[in-house]
Amino acid sequence: MYHTARLLFLLPLIGFFFIPMGFFITYAISVLVGSVSPLFPMISDTGTTHPSNYVFGAIVHFGSLVYCVTGLYVYTIRRMLISRASNLTPWRKTTAVWVNRLMPIGLLISTLGAIVVAHVEYTQNPILHFVGTLICFGGAMAYMTLTTILSLAMPLMRWLSTVRVAICVTTSVCFVGFITHLHYVVKYGIQQQQSPTSIFIGRFHIDPQQNDTNWTVVKALAMGSFCEWLMAFCYGFYMLTFAVEFGKIRVRLPVPVIDQAAADVYGKDEPKEARPMPMISINYNDFRH
């Protein structure tokens, strides 16, 4: 026996609750203990001290796992829809097939980068941490780009394709801004100095009047923080768009069935359960083109 339910939409919702909304928890903890400034901290800065580092690691681990499972469901569902679509032109169907095959690669790369970020704190190994950050955001960018191409080649809901294009373009601009911020920070370095004219930004006390490069670094840190937070939210909103599609997907969950013969032998308190495999039920006509 099966119980049919529309529960898949909960996956993107849970993922959005942990990433990026969960980062507000580490931000609040870090600001309260005074380890970071309320002004433009990097996301990684909010997870470098106790107890926020434990919360940060748990959020990144669980959230990236939920996003990975969500992306794999997207791959499976799209593959089933592509095989059932009869109104696609040959080039659109070929594009959809190959893009759908490449999508999990970007997803897994992003998950790997998130695991590196969760395990290696910025204060322990900043180079490896930023490498993990670039892998995470780079893989997410690749996944979002491929998914957007697939949404355009095989639009299930046209308004949703437009939303994904807008989010993808915004994330691309932020990714370029994040790379630019790293360039200026590496080029000029961060010179900390506490003085009446210093600015507490992120984890650093920087005096912009000490030299000209310090003001450039302050602006670079502000730009990098803004771009990183916006990228995290864009990725979260992008994954959240799958909740709309998942709401039309029926998941067949297994329901325990009592074997009467076994119940007579073992007693009614120890029934034998039948465990059919769960399946996904999709009706292509449920989606509006």
TrEMBL record:
Any one GO CC term of the record: endomembrane system
Primary subcellular site in the record, as a coarse category: membrane
Keyword Transport in annotation: no
Start and end residues of each CWH43-like N-terminal domain: 9-248
Protein transport in keyword set: no
Topology of this chain in the membrane: Multi-pass membrane protein
Residue spans crossing the bilayer: 7-34, 54-77, 98-120, 126-153, 165-186, 220-244
Top-level taxon of the source organism: Eukaryota
Subcellular location: Endomembrane system
Keywords associated with the record: Membrane, Transmembrane, Transmembrane helix
Family affiliation: Belongs to the DRAM/TMEM150 family.
Protein name as it appears in the record: DNA damage-regulated autophagy modulator protein 2
